[in-house]
Fold these 4 entries.
Entry 1:
Amino acid sequence: MNIKKLIKKSDLSITIILIIGILVVINFLSYQIFHRWDLTENKVFSISDISKKTVGELDDVVNIKAYFSDNLPSQFLSVKQEVGDILDEYESYSNGNIRVEFINPGDDEDIQRELYMIGIPQLSFQIFEKDKAQLVNGYMGVAISYGDKTEVIPAITQDTRDLEYQITTKIKKVISDEIATIGFVTNLGTLDQGEMTIAGEELEKLYTAEEIDLTGENGVSSDIDTLIMVGPKEELSEEQMKGLNSFLARGGSLFVMIDGVVVEQGLQAQKNTTNLFSFFEKYGIKVNQNLVADLRSGMASFSQGFMTFSTNYPFWPKITSDGFNQDNVSVSSLESVVLPWPSSIEIEGIGEEFYSYLAKTSPKAWVEEDNYIIAPNSVIPSPENKQYNLAVSVNGEVSDPYREEGAPEKINARIIVIGDSDYIVDGFAQSNPDNLNLFLNLVDSLSFDEDIIKIRSKNVSSRPIKDDLGESTKAIIKYANVFGITILVIIFGMIRYYLRRKSKFIDEI
C-alpha cells in the first residue's frame, strides 16, 4: 500500500512539473504572438474587427500619448491598466503605425502648458492620507496625433466601456480630410438643444455642429451634410419646403424626430399642427397623428396627490431586440429603447428596395387616434392588436416633388423619420442608454462610417425576459438565476466527496 502511495505521489509531481513547463512555454510564445481570447458574447474586452482594420490600413504613423499622473488615487490605477491593455492591442494590429507613449506630467510646467493648449485639463482628486482628506491634482487624458492634427480624450472615466469607440473615432477623425457637418434646426418649434445636452455632447466628439434657421434667407447652407429636426411643431412655407428638397437633391441627409400628437404637462394631448406631414408624404412617408400603446412598455412615474408611484405605461412602448430590423446595422445590436408617446409611420408609393423599417412595436400594440385618454389609470387595452412601425428609413430614388424644368425626374433621397422626439431628451437618454445609441447610430449611418456603429453597440444595456413567456416560466428563470449556481456548487461538492470516499476505501483495500 505504501508503494502505491509513493507511485501516486511521484506521478503527481511529474504532472505538476509538466504543467509548469507547458505554462512557461505558452508564456514565452505569448510574447512572440499577440492574441487575446475574449469569451464575452459581444467581445467587450477586446477591440473589434473595425478598429483592427482602421489601424491596419494606416499609411503613416499615428502617435498616441496617454497622460497619467503617478499620484492618482488607488481606485484609478485599474483604469490606467485598462487603457494600457487596449492601447497595446491597437499598437499590435497597426503594423508599426501606432506608437503609444505613457507620460507622467508631474510638475513639468512645459508639459502642463502644452496639455492646457490642446484641451486636456488638470483634474482634482480627493484622497485620504493619515486620516485626513486632501486634494491632489493630476491628469488622465489621451492625445492622438497625425501630422499637424490632434484629437484628445480630455479625461478617461472609470467606466471605460466606450473607450474603444472614442479612440477609433478620434483616429478616423485625424486621418480623414473631411468630417461631416451636422445642422440642427432651431426654429419651427423644435426642442431646445438645452433639453438634449447629452446627445449634443456625444455628437460633438466626432462632428462639427451648426444651428440652422430654416426661416432665414439662405436656408440650409451648402456645408451641411446631415440636417436634424427634433420635434418640429410649426409650419413651413412652400419656399422653405423647396429648400429642404434642394438639400436632399444635392445629396444631403435628413433625420427627423416628429410627434404626430404633442403631449404636454398634465398629459394633455393634441394633434401636431405642422405641415411637415404633407412634406414627408411627397416622399412616401406617412406619419399618422395617433398615439401608439403597447403591452410591452417602459416604467413611468406619476404623482397623485402626495403619492408618487411607478407603473408600466403602455403609451411608452419598449422596443426590444425582436422589434429592430436585424438587417440594418444601425439598429440590429440594440436591446431596449423606450419611445414615449410615439406615433405610427407608414410607407406609401415607394419601391420596397428603397424602404426599410427600423423599429416596430410588439404584436400586442394598438393606437388611440382621436380621443386621447392617456392617464395611466384610464388606459384600456384594445382587443385589436398588431405591430406598428415607429421608425423608418428611405434611401433610394424617388420622384422629385419640386422638380424644375430641365432637372432630373428623380432624386436620391436619404431620409430617416422617427415618430417621437421625447426619447432623446436628457431624462430618457440617461435612464435608457440605448435611446442615445439609437440616435447616435442613425446619425452615423447618414453622416459617417456605419462600421463604427458596431463598436458603440458592443455593450449590452438590457436583457429583459421576453414578455410572451408565462408567469410560471418567468418564475423558474428568476429562481434559477438566484439559486442555480449555489445548487450546482452543492451538487459538485457532494459528487467530489463521494468520489474521494470511494477512492480512499479502494486504497485501504
Note: The radius of gyration is 29 Å.
Entry 2:
Amino acid sequence: MIRTQIQLTEEQDRALEALAAAEDASKAALVRRAVDLLLSQRSEAERESRRARALAAAGMFRGDGELVSAEHDRFLADAYAGERA
C-alpha cells in the first residue's frame, strides 16, 4: 500500500472517527472504501456516457445497405472522431 496524507475538516474527522468506531474499522479502511466507491461511480458514469453516444450515432448513416453493413465500425469511429474535433 502507498501511504498518503490527506486533510479533513474537524467535522469530517469526527464523523469518520464515529463511523470507524461503529463499524469496528479503521479510518484508513473507510477512506479506501470511499475512494473505491467514488472510482466505481465514475467508471459507471463513463460507461453510460459511451452507451448514450453510441445510441445517438445509431441510424445516422444512410447508404445502399451493403456498404453500411460492411463498414459500420469505420462509420461509427468517424462519428466519434468528429465529436472530439
Note: The mean pLDDT is 85.
Entry 3:
Amino acid sequence: MKIRDLMTKPVASVRASDSTAVAARLMWDCDCGAVPVLDDDGRAVAMITDRDICMAALMRDRAPSAIPVAEVMSRGLHCCGPDDDVSTAERVMRAQQIRRLPIIDGDRRPVGLLSLADIVRATDHHKGRGAVDVPPEEVAGTLADICATPPRAPNPTTSPAF
C-alpha cells in the first residue's frame, strides 16, 4: 500500500518566523497536533508539535505569542514521499519514535501528513474503511516501538549517590 492512499491532505503548515501562538491556533483549527514548518521558499524544513509549544511556554515562562516557531521546532526532518510504501513510513516512525510524518514531493513541499492513526484506520477492515494490507500485528509493533522509553543520560541532580 502506498502512503498517498492513507495520508491526510491538504496539510496545514507554518513558517519558522511565525509565533508559536500562530502554530497553536492552526493546530486547534485543523484538529491536529503537529504541522510542518516551511522555509521562505515553501519547503519543509522541520516539524512543530503541540507539546513543543506547551513545553516552550512553560520552560521559558513566556506567552506563545512571544516565542518564534524557529526557537522550538525540531531540527531534523524525517519524511517520506507519497509513492513510498506504508512499510517505509512505519520504519521511519519506529526508528525516530514519531507518530506523525510529513509527506513531501521532490521539491520538499508538503503534500500530506501520515499519522499513526491513518495507518491504524487502514487495518479497520470490519467497517470497510480500508484494505487489510497493513496487518494489525505490524501496527501494534510500530506503536510499541514509538512508545518505547528512549535511553536517557542520568540527571546528576536526581541520581542517587553511591
Note: The radius of gyration is 17 Å.
Entry 4:
Amino acid sequence: MSRIGRMPVKIPAGVNVTLEGTHIRVKGPKGELERDLHPQVTVSIVDGQILVERPTDDNFHRALHGMTRALIQNMVTGVSTGFEKVLEVNGVGYRAEVEKNNLVLYVGYSHPVVIQPPAGISFETDARTRQIKVMGYDKELVGQVAANIRQVRPPEPYKGKGIKYLDEKIRRKAGKAGKV
C-alpha cells in the first residue's frame, strides 16, 4: 500500500471540510479551496480525519492514491497555516519593492517590471537581505507565482546575477580561458 496514501489527513481546529461526491471543499482561517478529485479514488471523513482509498493495486491507482492524499493535505495545510516561497535578488543595482500590493522589480532592464498578485497571494520584501517572500494559501499558485518572478531575470552562470530561490545553488562557469 502507498506509504503516503494510507496516512490519514488530520483536520485541524478551525478548518471545515465538505465532501460532495468527488468534489472536496476546504475552508479555514486563511481562505477557501476546492477541487474535483479523480472518480476512481474513494475519499471519506472519519473521526476528524480524511481517509483516501484506492480500488486496486494497479500502478495507476497506486500513483493516484498518494497524489490525491498529498493534494488534500496541501489544501488543509494551506487554509490553516499557508505557504511561502522565498526568492533572492542578486546583482549590482538589482532590487525589489512592494508598491500598493504590487511587486516592482528593478533588475537591469530599462524599465521596472511590475507584477500584480493574483487573488490569495501577497508579497513581502526585505531590502537589507534582498529577499522576496511570496505568501498564500494555495501551494500550486504560490509555486507558480514564484516561478514567474524568477523567470523575469533567471540567474546567469557566470556572475550569478538574477533572481533565484533562496535554497537554489547556481552552477558557476569559468569565464574566458585567459581571465584569472
Note: The longest strand covers residues 83-90.
